[in-house]
Amino acid sequence: MTKIKVKTPLVELDGDEMTRIIWAMIKEKLILPFLDVELKYYDLGVRKRDETDDRITTESAYAIQRYGVGVKCATITPDAERVTEYKLKKAWPSPNGQIRSILDGTVFRKPILVKNITPAVRSWKKPIILGRHAYGDLYRGVELMVDQPGKVEIVYTPEKGQERRLLLHDFKGPGVVMGIHNLEKSIRSFARACITYALSEKVDLWFSVKDTISKIYHAYFKNVFAAETQARRAEFEQAGVGYRYMLIDDAAAQAMKHEGGFLWALSNYDGDVFSDVVASGFGSLGMMTSVLVSPDGKFEFEAAHGTVRRHYYEHLKGHPTSTNSVASIFAWTGGIKKRGELDATPAVTAFGEKIEKAVIGCIEDGTVTKDLVPLMDPRPIGHQSTEGFIGAVAAKLKTMM
Ligand code: NAP
Ligand code: MG
């Protein structure tokens, strides 16, 4: 069999723990036997990030900017515990956060639906797409430990004009402080990316923050969204879709009663939390895809879940695992399909679609990993191991080639 030629290199970002093991299997069993592709490989495993003082992360983001499409494996965001576990020089920042800010991108997450899994929220019939703002707030926060009584103030020193001071808190005892920020430019490109994606998918756009409490910070986001959606009202009308602003808690309640089929734009932290809520509601975290889109049309595809640490420790003990590889596979297929589209090579796009069909076909035949078994109707008798599932997809794919 001759391999399908991919014109432009694909940027590959390797990762950590269980997903790193899955990543290698996917590449070996589902990609390289069929595709003639040049992979620009960046090892974002935590050890390599530490070894390179994290330069590898920055370099990988620039590679995505250069070549246009990247596929990324899940990575560890080190905390104090990880610093000890991996003997790291320091708790390096989140690679995803860094790549997002270099690309100024917006992350969209969309669940993979299959016929034989009914979402936990019974009203959900269509995907809920989540758009997570990818810059600032908690993820660019500056924190301070207050260990004795004293005043903490916010001081703004404009380049021209008068300094402004605001009392944050007059501490009578120990406590903690955090300063967060966001940028007009970033909020606006987030709003624009969400509008563009909602219009292209022909779904309603929701946006929610807590502007009743945060009358300046959150209200700023609300106003930018209002202005941007207003500016494109004609396009909304033409597409037959609408824009709704709701308070975050109201939106959360509404989402539980809705049939889905809308794009929910969320601030950075809310997007982090609700993407996991929505993913679990639709089935498993292993069934949630994620794509980072930059305003100038660069794409990075990945799974929405983490490195599945608990499974990795089982694997290290020599115990069999049953980790869902679907979202990681869809990271590869998302990248391959986009590469085909941008290069105008339909055979490449069609190959990406074939892998997806093979995956869905396996699940709908009842060939699944353990996480999906309790969600399925009818319930399959057994489940596959991590490698067993990928093997089944590879076997099905071969029959389709
Ligand atoms: P996780 O990897 O998302 O997994 C949490 C739990 O969810 C797992 O223990 C497992 O539940 C279930 N799960 C998630 N993905 C699954 C899959 N593919 N198949 C089957 N079950 C799955 O989160 P974590 O283990 O708490 O975090 C590990 C590391 O991931 C952290 O260091 C964090 O920094 C990192 N992280 C990275 C990304 C990213 O790179 N995009 C995102 C989030 C977190 P059971 O244990 O019940 O089986
Ligand atoms: Mg998360």
**Molecules bound to protein:** NADP nicotinamide-adenine-dinucleotide phosphate, magnesium ion
- N-C termini distance: 9 Å
What is the beta-strand fraction? Answer: 15-25%
Helix content: 40-55%
Number of helices: 14
Low-pLDDT segments: none
Q: Characterize the largest beta sheet: strand count, sense, and whether it forms a barrel.
A: 10 strands, mixed
Provide the residue-averaged pLDDT: 95
| Class by SSE composition | alpha/beta
Radius of gyration equals: 22 Å
Task: Give the overall form.
Answer: globular
Tell me which oligomeric state these chains represent.
single chain
Write the layout of secondary structure elements.
Elements: E1 4-5, E2 10-14, H1 17-31, E3 35-36, E4 39-43, H2 46-51, H3 55-67, E5 69-72, H4 80-85, H5 95-103, E6 106-111, E7 128-132, E8 142-146, E9 150-156, E10 164-171, E11 175-179, H6 184-201, E12 204-209, H7 217-231, H8 233-239, E13 243-247, H9 248-257, E14 262-266, H10 268-282, E15 288-293, E16 299-303, H11 309-316, H12 326-343, H13 346-364, H14 386-400
Parallel strand pairs: 1-3, 2-4, 2-5, 5-16, 7-14, 12-13, 12-14
Antiparallel strand pairs: 6-7, 6-15, 8-11, 9-10, 15-16
The site of magnesium ion (MG) has 2 residues, from α10.
